[in-house]
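Inverse folding, one chain.
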């Protein structure tokens, strides 16, 4: 079920009302939350429920088993139980998401050296959100093993933790240490929290339906026929895709986090205005925060983090970026995208400037300095060219696309569909996005702080509703559903 659908518009109010009617009966409230979440997820394909149920059962039973072995001081057994569950979950993820990719890559490599091999590919549907809920389940198992959290015996609460519908299919990737205690405890409806949640959802819908979906109209045409486009058009395509993927993914996160607050549950922040970053390191602290901190806590730090020799720190950093790239999909473009960011990160790491910008840019000031503005723009350009690789179908397409931007054809005739009223409106919407988020950059989301005058607030709500209803692009899935 898509957030931006009529079905969800009916589903959410019904779930909200029944959920709070059960406020004084925690067990039944959580049970209803599980039922609603499984309906939400099964709306795509009921067969997906089998896989998430299996992952849930394995992780729940493994947590109890690990705790039992540790209680009996059989630490080696608990270790192998943890390893076994991690291996099972990764194997499922690998088969559904990466099997054909690695088999095809191996066959292509053999062909290049003169060997012809027969390969068997699997015709599997990639379950929506499998990477997200798999990583969430893995974090629970690992945290129980490391004794950061006690395993829950409440099976219904655990199922709700894995399948919580607002963040099930595209995050944030929650930790059991944050989300599970909230599900296990009684929750009270808070009007102010719910109102702010609605505002965050409204801003998320604006970013998805007005920004991302309208950018997608131009981006799909430009990338499909890039060989016929001028360099200037391709540059516009790269810029628009940068805003498309940001509006799409951060828009989903805003909707998910805001929706969760309607149910008295607080999820972690997943984006913090990343395009206002002054270097790549700051960008990665502000982009897809839940995934990046997951990799930090469960891969980077166990490998030694920054407490080892410089060579090993470099190794650990490269591993994180390459794994992050591969996590996004079974294509070498994603791996190269991760490698590009690793290369951009290296000068900051070696000069020990990777932790330089921990504050908000231009904090306490209306405008950035010329230096800060130059840093923001130059960092955006680097990120944009990496996004071109991310968006391309193949490495060859990405190379030709970028090469054509810098070719003498850059000022050739612009494609007919670019200088249109739709593009001019989109540019106005992008300006609204940038100015609004710049104003709110020290807060959580684009509508965090509103005018103290009620009539001004309602006028802003009405304008956003009007833009969403009048200028929302064609209904489309969120980009990160495929990851």
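Residues assigned per position:
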């Amino acid at each position: 079920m898509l957030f931006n659908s009529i079905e969800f518009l009916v589903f959410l109010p019904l779930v909200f009302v029944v959920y709070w009617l059960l406020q004084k009966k925690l067990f039944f409230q959580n049970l209803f939350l599980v039922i609603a979440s499984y309906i939400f997820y099964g709306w795509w394909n009921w067969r997906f429920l089998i896989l998430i149920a299996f992952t849930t059962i394995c992780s729940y039973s493994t947590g109890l088993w690990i705790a039992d072995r540790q209680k009996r001081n059989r630490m080696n057994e608990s270790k192998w139980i943890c390893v076994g569950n991690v291996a099972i979950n990764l194997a499922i993820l690998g088969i559904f998401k990466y099997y054909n990719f690695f088999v095809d890559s191996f066959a292509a490599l053999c062909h290049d050296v003169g060997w012809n091999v027969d390969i068997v590919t699997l015709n599997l549907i990639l379950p929506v959100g499998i990477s997200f809920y798999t990583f969430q389940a893995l974090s629970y198992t690992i945290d129980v093993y490391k004794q950061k959290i006690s395993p829950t015996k409440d099976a219904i609460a655990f199922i709700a933790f894995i399948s919580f519908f607002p963040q099930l299919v595209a995050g944030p990737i929650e930790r059991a240490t944050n989300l599970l205690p909230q599900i296990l405890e009684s929750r009270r409806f808070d009007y102010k929290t719910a109102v702010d949640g609605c505002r965050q959802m409204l801003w998320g819908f604006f970013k998805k339906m007005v920004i991302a979906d309208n950018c997608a109209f131009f981006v799909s045409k430009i990338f499909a026929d890039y060989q016929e486009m001028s360099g200037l058009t391709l540059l516009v395509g790269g810029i628009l895709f940068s805003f498309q993927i940001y509006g799409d993914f951060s828009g989903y996160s805003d909707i998910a986090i805001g929706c969760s607050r309607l149910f008295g549950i607080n999820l972690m922040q997943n984006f913090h205005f990343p395009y206002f970053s002054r270097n790549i390191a700051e960008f990665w602290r502000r982009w897809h925060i839940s995934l990046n901190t997951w990799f930090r806590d469960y891969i980077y730090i166990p490998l030694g983090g920054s407490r080892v020799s410089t060579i090993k720190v470099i190794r650990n950093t490269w591993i994180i970026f390459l794994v992050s790239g591969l996590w996004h999909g079974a294509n070498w473009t994603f791996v190269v995208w991760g490698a590009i960011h690793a290369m951009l990160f290296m000068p900051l790491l070696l000069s020990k400037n990777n932790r330089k910008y921990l504050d908000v840019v231009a904090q306490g000031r209306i405008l950035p300095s010329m230096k800060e503005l130059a840093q923001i723009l130059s960092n955006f350009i680097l990120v944009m060219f990496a996004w071109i690789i991310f968006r391309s179908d193949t490495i060859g397409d990405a190379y030709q696309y970028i090469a054509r931007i810098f070719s003498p054809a850059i000022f050739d005739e612009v494609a007919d569909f670019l200088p249109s009223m739709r593009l001019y409106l989109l540019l106005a919407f992008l300006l609204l996005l940038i100015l609004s988020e710049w104003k709110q950059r020290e807060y959580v989301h684009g509508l965090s702080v509103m005018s103290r005058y009620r009539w001004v607030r309602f006028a802003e709500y009405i304008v956003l509703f009007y833009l969403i209803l009048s200028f929302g692009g064609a209904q489309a899935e969120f980009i990160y559903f495929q990851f």
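The mean pLDDT is 90. The chain is about 65% helix and 0% strand.
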